[in-house]
Amino acid sequence: MVTHSSFNNTSQNNSNKGVCDVCNNEHCLVHNHSQTLLGDETTQNTIIKCKKGQQFIIEGAPVNGLFFIKQGTVKVFRTGINGREQIVRFAKDCEIIGHRGFGTQEYYSIGAIALQDSELYYFSKEYLQKILFENPAFSYDMMLFYANELNRSESKVKSISQMTVRERVIDTLLYIHRKFGNLRGFLNLPLSRKEYADYAGTTEEQVIRVFSALKKEELITAKGKKIAIPDVQLLKNEISEHNYFLDL
Questions:
Q1: Exposed site from 15, 26, 79, 121, fewest CB < 10 Å?
Q2: What H or E segment, with its residue span, contains residue 56?
Q3: Domain ranges of the chain
């Protein structure tokens, strides 16, 4: 169970920083309101340190707050039919996790696992509710944040429902490329074939078949879990009609 005061196998420390030092992203909700969220000297701003492979949100656990990734990479997932894992998204620095259950549900509808050693700010439900009541500017920006999330989610669902398996796998490759970029020529987030399948909504066998076809067509190269895209535009052309830029 995830709570403000106790995390399984995590280390915590309290930081009363008045300024978010993660980035200068003007679209970041936490950065724009860092004085409100982090500047109160009486507030215990908990930083959670998670090891690679550690789960910090348990699907079905009570909603006690939300998380902001200070540094690291996270896999967000939910359990589907017959207990199969469905990856909802991959998150990185300056992204919020657990917000879709905040204020509307009693239990987390998703789980979250650190894919690398990560640091996260944790904001309790009670603390956020206090700020929402006391700070109209933060409440307004929070409303816009949720409206944008809903719009992108609805657009993505519509797009994915019209894609073939091949197109969904290509969409996943482009999503990883856009979000994480390249490292020494390969996508900077090595994933297993199963993880590609769990995000694309298909099977591991289908992903292997599509990757094999893409390699024969020289649209990708592979070295173990590492995937490289020689010409990104060629992949974009295959799914351009599906608004491939709509990320979650």
A1: 26
A2: strand 55-57
A3: 11-156, 162-242
Q: CA dist 201 to 31, 156, 171, 248, Å?
A: 33, 13, 11, 14
Residue 80 sits at the vertex; the CA angle it makes with 79 and 82, to the nearest 5 degrees, is 105
Match domain 11-156 to its CATH number in 2.60.120.10, 2.40.50.840, 2.40.170.20, 2.160.20.60: 2.60.120.10
Residue 114 identity = A
**Helix boundaries (H) for the chain:** 29-32, 34-38, 125-134, 136-161, 165-180, 193-200, 204-216, 232-238
- Spacing of C-alpha 21 from chain mean position: 20
pLDDT digits (tens, 9 = 90+) for 129-150: 888 899 999 889 888 888 888 8
pTM: 0.81
Please count the residues of the chain.
Answer: 248
Per-residue pLDDT reduced to its tens digit, 91-114: 999 899 988 767 666 889 899 999
